[in-house]
Fold Acetyltransferase.
Amino acid sequence: MRKEVFVAEQGVPEDIEYDPYDALAVHVLAVREDGTPLGTGRLLSGEAAAGKTGGDPAVGSLGRLAVMKQARGLGVGAALVRAIEGAARELGLTAVDLHAQTHALGFYERLGYVAYGPEFPDAGIPHQAMRRALRSGDAERSLIN
């Protein structure tokens, strides 16, 4: 799925799409009732996240969020983000950072993420760092909204 979205669609070199952090990450997968995969994402924490979060051990790093073309606009991406945030809470993390492709800033802003720092290139694509603080009541509110 990541290969189709990032490598085939966006031209990210395959040798940088997959990294040693995959083995250390919590992975989430959205599937149809028939088992067809719709989207995926990962959460890094601890030392694995340190380089992406400024070294704060209480902050996780959301990444590699990919939704299949036919599932876009159906809420799959938001559900994946909320699942990753739930995993972050279970690990005792207080915030989640991510590096958003700049075309997706509005998506993440609607989910409560705030941009910070300068824009930067990653795999030749403009990105922006973003963060969302996690509070104990957020999980219940996200289920209602």
In short: The chain has six helices and six strands. The beta strands are 26-31, 37-44, 59-67, 95-101, 114-122, 125-133. The chain has one domain: 2-144. The first helix runs from residue 2 to 9.
